[in-house]
Each structure stands twice: as C-alpha cells, then as structure tokens.
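Q&A log
Question type: sequence-to-structure
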Amino acid sequence: MNTTLIKMAFRNLVKNQRRTLITLLGIAFGVMISILFTGLQDATWRETINTAAELGAGHVVLQQKDYLDEPSVSNRLSRADIIARMAAKDSRIRTVRERVVSHAMVATAANSTSAMIYGINPQTDTPDNTRLLKGKLVGKPLKSGDSQGVIIGAELAERLNLKPGQKLVYTLTDTNGEIVSALGRVRGVLHTGSRRVDQTLCMVDMNGLRRLLGYRATDVTQLAVFLTDYRDSKDVARALSASLVTSSFAGTVQALPWETVNADLFGLVQTKMASAHIFELLILFLVAAGIFNTLYVSVMERMREFGILNALGFSRPRIFSLVIWESVFTAIGGLALALLVTAWPYYHMNTTGLDLAKMAADGKEMVVNDIAMNTVIHVDIYFEKLLSILAVAAGATLLSGLYPAWRAGNVVPVESIKLV
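Response status: OK
Response body:
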C-alpha cells in the first residue's frame, strides 16, 4: 500500500474544505433519508403483518389439507395437541395457539346477520397474549365455564342493536351437517380496531363451542403459529411440512405461510415495498450524481496539477489511484457523518415516535388493509437493510470517482501545464 498516495489524497480533501463538506453532507443526508424511510417501512409493515396474524390464523397456519378449499367445520384438525408440540420444537416459533372457528347466523328477536364464531379459553387467552382481546371492551370479559357468555364485535352489536346483558341466538352447522343452535347472553362489546373483524366477531367459550360442533377435546379448526420474525414464515412452513410428511399426519395436515392465507395483504405489502425500493434507489442515484459532479469538477480544476505530477514522474496508475483514494475517504467520511446526523432522529423516532393522529381520517386511527394501526409511527430498520444502504452508498461514491480518476490518469502533461 502506497502511504504517500493516501496522505496526498487526504490532504487534497482537507485543502478543499468547502467542496469536501458539501460532498459529505450530500452523502449524509441521502443516507439519513434512506435509513429513516426504510426504518419507517419496516416498522409499519411489521406491525401490520403481526396484527393481521393475531387477528387471523397466525404467521403460519396448520390445518386439515382440504380446509383451504373448503372451510367447513368437518375439515377439522384432530390430535391438535400432538401437532402443536411437534411444531413448538422449532426455535423460530414463539407460540402455537388453538383456533376453533365457524361461520354462523346470529339472531335477535328483531334482526339477524352472519357472523364468525371464535372459541376462546378464558384461562389462557388474555389481552396480554391474544390480539382479539386487546381492544376496547364495553362490559365484562368471558369467564371460564361460562357456557352462555358471548363477546361480540362493536359493528355487529350496532347492526343487531345489542348491548351487554341482552340475549342472542347463534346457529351453525356441526360436523355431521346438522343445524344446531345455542342461546347466548352478551357479556361485552369489543372494538378490536379492525372493522372487518368487528362486523362479524362473536366469541364464546372454546369448550362449549367444541361440544356444539361435535368436536373432541383435542380437535381444532386450525393451529395458529406465531413467529419471532414474520419473515421466516415461508421457511417455517416448509420445515413444518417436511416434519409432517415423516409423521403419522402425512397427507392430512398442511402448513401454510401468511402470504398464502392472506394473499391480499401480501400483495399490498409487495407493491408498497417495491415502490419504497424505487424511491430509495432514486435517492441514492441523486446522491451519486451529486458526488460525481463534485469529483469531476474537482478533477477538471486540477488538471494542471495532475499534469505537473505526471511530468515529475507520477505514472498514470498512481494518479488514477490518487483520485480513487480521495473517493474512498469521501465515502468513509460521508458514511460516518451520515450515522452521526441520523443518530438522534432515528433514536427519537424509534423510542418516542411521531403522532399522526391529526392526519387520520377520523382523528383517532389509521387503517391499513382494514386494520387499525397505532397513530404513533416509529422507525425500526432491520440490521441487514442498514448494511445494504451503507454498502450501496459507499459503492455509489466509489463508482462516481472512476471516470474522474480515469480523466486525471490520462492527462497530457504538455497540454495541461499550459492551463492557467
């Protein structure tokens, strides 16, 4: 390594402080915008996907192989306890929860409508671990052994004009195809934050729903698998499928990632992320263009200097390397400054966040794919994406210096020395 060239490159940058500072600030603010924007995207979609998983069938769903095409209660999952223990062995899985659900008709003396009956276990399903129960509840929660208790969604309660304490009848089809009904009493009205869920939500005791459907104690409609990182859903689904193939459940149970179960949300995320990547590339392109312009002007202004160096014995490769080293120092300095200027905004947005309640349509909530989101937005970038942004910014800076370096290396001494 030629330390003389390194020292000369560093001195050249220090000597032209204004130009160097402008270049470093251009890199810093371009990288800062990319980091904050990407961190916002990561945090927003992570919350959206995790919330949708909690309100639905998890990041990965285990269900009877025909249930996806024919969501009937007869296509149930038997011996769910054994399957759940098998799935829980994967370290990427946070928890596995039982789902007993069924389409139903809910009626009062004056009105009726369709609904989804969810079975919950009041002993294990709490607002701390069940997203469906984290909403605003008007009334009382279900208690263990309450065979008549019902929690209904806010939109469903409004449609049926129901309040806590009033009665309803829900009718559904059991595993034998028989129509069965049960009398319930509204214990509470729940606002989950998802209008789609609130329009159809009807929660009852899981064991009571099992008896009504004709399920055994270990039968469930689905097993909802929740992951530490939702991005592992496809890999975990493939791993679970491979485990099921070698077990006694081969051919009867399938594992599906949320991307398959919730295709609408997956399509939305893919579209938005593609737009975000285009925006980030545009930012980095503008940064690279600014760096190229600065380096090129710098080289053109120093053509006489390069000609003298060439006349004194500096070879073309050494002059080329000199400019490249200036690009290297520019990249290092720009990234260091970028991390410095990004640190406080990122920390503030990561911890405190930015409240966008005033920008929401109703002043209280924002909705993404019919899911109410927290109006306080945060940034939380994945580490590998941070490294990618820094690597692309550094690469763009170095590439921007190639042509100016080539021009400097091909200077003609006689002609350049004549320049004033």
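Response note: The two ends are 33 Å apart (CA to CA).
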